[in-house]
Amino acid sequence: MVAGALEGIRVIDVTQVWAGPLVTRIMGDFGAEVIKVESIQHPDIMRYEHRPKYPPNDKTYNQGGYFHQLNRNKYGITLDLSRSKGREIILELVKYADVVVENYSSRVFENFGLNYERFAANKPDIIMLSLQGYGDSGPYRDGPAFGSTIEAMSGFKSLLGYGNGVPIYTGACIADPLSGLYGLFAVINALFYRQKTGKGQHINVSMHEAMSSITEEALLEYDIHRRAPEQWGSGHPYFAPYGSYRCAGDDSWIAISVTSDQEWASLCAVIDIPQLRDICFSTVTQRQQNRDHLDLLVEQWTLKHNAVEAMEILQQAGVPAGAFHNGKDILNNTHLIARDFFWNVVCPDTGTYPQVGPIVRFSETPATLRLSPPGLGEHNEYILGSILGMSKDDIISLQQEGIIGNIPRYKGLLD
What are the structural domains of the chain? Predict the structure, then answer.
């Protein structure tokens, strides 16, 4: 098997939900040895999210679809970090690691007495990524956060709407993957820095700041003109036709984006509606000024076709267009299948099903699927025995004390 780009790197993953697990999942896909740390008192809550409708059993905490997607290629152990023995074990593990990733609010690791300085005392060249809602300073530093709340705090939601000033939710919590990727890039750069200097470092990434970084135009709009940016729905402040258009069929839509005179001419040739040649549509500015009327004319044509048919006609004519797809459409998409976009992953207590594979392709050091998503505490004995040299009796004692285990004591969303 070809070695991954991060083979030989060991990561201690003390993360949950989405942003943090995405960092370590990608590292695991590319060869890093990732050890995910949960506790039986507080497992990753994604274990209980989007469970497939399999026959009921006593291990539904191993059925979370989101958990599986974000935690393949990882070993899984449990440690109660609120207790001294749990903290002693993770400090020992850090001696044999290269990277620690955590994504709790600032107060959590402080309350545990775990921080970069303490990790670095055990492993001077350790790299630690703290991925937090609001960073490690400022008045909101201790606040818990999810992608949806960060979208609101960053001002991003105010930009999403249909011109009536009412903000809407993206439905995707994009603050999580965005800040996760920022964190990943920072860790990779820290590994290069350590390779050159032998020094580790502490990285702090704020989800709030990551999300605010993509609202630059809105910030400039207010800074220069002292006015809140206008909501454009699926439209564009400069170009038209540009947006979402209904097609034939139930809830069938297509996105069309015309950004040049050449694309406009191609669109007119395809649609062939005489009114499109009116002088009121002759320039980019005039098309934008008359975009409501223009959208109605374009939709007269799209309503005569299903979304995929309309997309293919427009693309062949050189007009950027894309049919709206649902999950079923994506799983059966011939283009994605031809590019091996999906990995068939064996998941605990659910069986085998497709997951989104690696987005980045390396010709010399490709991503590989080596490990199924771990059951809760699945690798306690292996990791504690093989890395720390604990005996079976030691491990049994830890389990009896509730420091480790493989059955949750906290039900949470399980009910």
Answer: 10-214+340-414 (3.40.50.10540), 242-326 (3.30.1540.10)
Whole-number Å distance between alpha carbons of 243 and 246:
10
Could you give the residue ranges of the DSSP H alpha helices within 30-159? 65-70, 84-94, 106-112, 116-122, 147-153
Q: Is the pLDDT of residue 413 over 50?
A: no
In 133-172 the beta strands, taken as DSSP E runs, fall at none
Distance set, CA 403 to CA 2, 360, 407 (Å): 37, 38, 12
Residue 123 structure tokens: 């492993």
| Alpha-carbon torsion (50, 54, 58, 63), positive or negative | negative
Asked whether 321 and 255 are in contact (CB, 8 A), the reply is: yes
CA neighbor of 404 nearest in space, from 189, 93, 100: 93
Alpha-carbon gap, residue 56 to 325, rounded angstroms: 31
Q: Give the neighbor-by-neighbor strand order of the sheet with 33-38.
A: 74-78, 33-38, 10-14, 99-102, 127-132, 201-206
Q: Whole-angstrom Cα distance, residue 101 to residue 68?
A: 19
Full-model pTM: 0.90
Residue with tokens 């293919």: 312
Q: How far apart are CA 14 and CA 28, in angstroms?
A: 14
DSSP 8-state symbol, 162: S
Structure tokens at 391: 């005996």
Q: What is the dihedral of CA 17, 110, 375, 75, to 10 degrees?
A: 100
Which amino acid appears at position 154 of this protein? S
Q: Is 137 helix (H, G, I), strand (E, B) or coil?
A: coil
Count CA within 13 A, CB hemisphere, residue 396.
3
Residues sharing a CB contact under 8 Å with residue 180, sequence separation 6 or more, in sequence order = 18, 19, 20, 21, 22, 23, 131
pLDDT, tens only, 300-348: 999 999 999 999 999 999 999 999 999 899 999 999 999 999 999 998 7
pLDDT at 414: 41
Interhelix angle 19-29/175-197, rounded to 10 degrees, is 50
* Nearby residues of 284 by Cβ (< 8 Å), 6 or more positions away: 238, 239, 261
Q: Which amino acid is at 404?
A: I
